[in-house]
């Protein structure tokens, strides 16, 4: 089972929105703890969440989204609808560009739901000492809006101190209050000004895969990894990591990122 905070991260929505979908009967948690009220979801529910957000971004009211989903709307039908809406948005004025980008991102997630080309490995992760910057993800804020500036700050500080920028890592820790993000560079010396030393502990077992290309597609890779882990009988642990093996230059098409999800039986 996936805690609501982790499920929100994987689906790239807020926990408040998930609770709203639950109240409307659009997406009911797979399990609600009778004592604490904590909501938990299964990885299989990500497919329904992708469709809800895609249809909402197409402009359908949530009441109509429920009707469409209950009518067993399949991926091919949804894909046709998304392409038709994309053509309309392209004829629209400049303000429609943000909505178009959202539709494209969700279409990418749906296309990747049954991607069998990703290879997964289970391995241990070494402890890493980072010169890092951290922040809490605010309600409604996209992860990329936080990670990019944090890396810029940490990278500039490490470079000024003469450190290496070779090993870049982001860590995502879902807490009751929300997600805490830590990014930084492997560093042996004292903390450069503007950073703090963060010790990422060794991990006995983690399910890992490699994402090739831009960060706009990394959400699909994370969803696939979590679905693979769940169907393989693993329980998810946190925090998870992204190890940026190749992340140089503005063009992200050549970037190589390893996704690392701690697990246990």
Automatic annotation (TrEMBL):
Is Iron-sulfur set as a keyword in this record? no
- Does the record bear Secreted in its keywords? no
Mind telling me which Pfam families this protein's record contains? MerR_1
Question: Which molecular function term from Gene Ontology is one that the record holds?
Answer: DNA-binding transcription factor activity
Q: Which residues form the HTH merR-type domain?
A: 1-71
Query: What keywords tag this UniProt record?
Result: Coiled coil, DNA-binding
Xref: SUPFAM superfamilies:
Probable bacterial effector-binding domain (SSF55136), Putative DNA-binding domain (SSF46955)
> What InterPro entries does the record point to?
AraC_E-bd, DNA-bd_dom_put_sf, MerR-type_HTH_dom, MerR_fam, Reg_factor_effector_dom_sf
Q: Which Gene3D superfamilies match?
A: 1.10.1660.10, Regulatory factor, effector binding domain (3.20.80.10)
Q: So which domain of life are we looking at?
A: Bacteria
Q: Which residues form a coiled coil?
A: 79-113
Q: Which PANTHER family match?
A: MERR FAMILY REGULATORY PROTEIN, REDOX-CYCLING DRUG-SENSING TRANSCRIPTIONAL ACTIVATOR SOXR
Task: Return the protein name.
Answer: MerR family transcriptional regulator
Native organism is Arsenicicoccus cauae
Q: What is the lineage of its organism?
A: Bacteria, Bacillati, Actinomycetota, Actinomycetes, Micrococcales
């Amino acid at each position: 089972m996936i805690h609501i905070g982790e499920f929100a991260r994987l689906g790239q929505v807020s926990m408040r929105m998930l609770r709203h979908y639950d109240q409307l009967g659009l997406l009911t948690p797979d399990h609600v703890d009778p004592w604490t009220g904590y909501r938990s979801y299964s990885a299989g529910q990500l497919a329904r969440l992708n469709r809800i957000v895609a249809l909402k971004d197409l402009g359908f009211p949530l009441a109509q989204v429920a009707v469409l989903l209950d009518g067993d709307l399949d991926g091919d039908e949804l894909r046709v609808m998304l392409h038709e809406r994309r053509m309309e948005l392209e004829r629209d004025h400049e303000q429609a560009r943000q909505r178009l980008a959202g539709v494209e991102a969700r279409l990418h997630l749906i296309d990747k739901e049954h991607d069998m080309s990703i290879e997964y490995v289970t391995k241990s992760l070494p402890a890493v000492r980072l010169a890092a910057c951290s922040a809490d993800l605010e309600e409604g804020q996209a992860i990329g809006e936080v990670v990019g500036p944090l890396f810029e700050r940490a990278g500039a500080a490490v470079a000024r101190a003469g450190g290496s920028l070779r090993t870049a890592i982001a860590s995502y820790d879902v807490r009751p209050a929300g997600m805490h993000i830590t990014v930084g560079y492997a560093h042996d010396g004292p903390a450069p000004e503007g950073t703090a030393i963060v010790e990422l502990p060794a991990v006995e077992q983690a399910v890992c895969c490699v994402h090739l290309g831009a960060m706009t597609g990394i959400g699909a890779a994370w969803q696939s990894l979590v679905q693979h882990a769940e169907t393989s009988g693993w329980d998810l642990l946190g925090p998870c990591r992204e190890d940026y093996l190749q992340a140089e230059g503005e063009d992200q098409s050549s970037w190589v990122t390893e996704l690392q999800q701690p697990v246990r039986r």
